[in-house]
Design a protein that fits this description.
The chain is mainly β. A four-stranded antiparallel beta sheet has the order 4-3-6-7, with no helix packed on it. The radius of gyration is 27 Å and the shape is rod-shaped.
């Protein structure tokens, strides 16, 4: 290998250096819906957000109860849906979703949606009656 005529520049790159980058947040997710699938699972879906560069994913927020405001992030999703598992039966959960892009810009949160997990199915038959007497 021959390294003749190598020029090292200490003045930096040639041409103007521009700042820039992605400073625009994605659109707020719309159409959030939630459906209880079982006593321990709620499935969420929403309309895809848009961004001037591209949406990287979504942050999912949750709280327990119907009057609460979701502020605790529980997960992220790369798509416009999420299955929340491991929940408690017969419990009300409230969700919101926010979109984010690769530059770290985050949209506002969506409107809230509330869903209640199903009750645990009662599969145990009642005990047989005892102590019956004939009169």
């Amino acid at each position: 290998v021959d390294f003749d005529d190598i020029i090292i520049s200490t003045t930096g790159p040639i041409g103007p250096v521009t700042g820039g980058g992605d400073a625009q947040a994605p659109s707020v997710p719309a159409g959030l819906s939630g459906q209880a699938i079982s006593s321990s699972q709620i499935n969420l879906s929403w309309t895809v957000s848009t961004d001037n560069v591209g949406v990287a994913g979504y942050r999912i927020y949750r709280c327990t109860g119907s009057g609460c405001i979701p502020t605790t992030q529980i997960a992220t999703s790369a798509t416009n849906s999420y299955s929340n598992i491991g929940l408690t039966a017969s419990t009300v959960y409230t969700y919101r979703v926010a979109a984010y892009d690769a530059a770290g810009n985050v949209s506002g949160q969506s409107s809230s949606v509330t869903a209640t997990t199903q009750a645990i199915a009662d599969t145990t038959p009642p005990a047989s009656p005892t102590g019956l007497t004939v009169m």
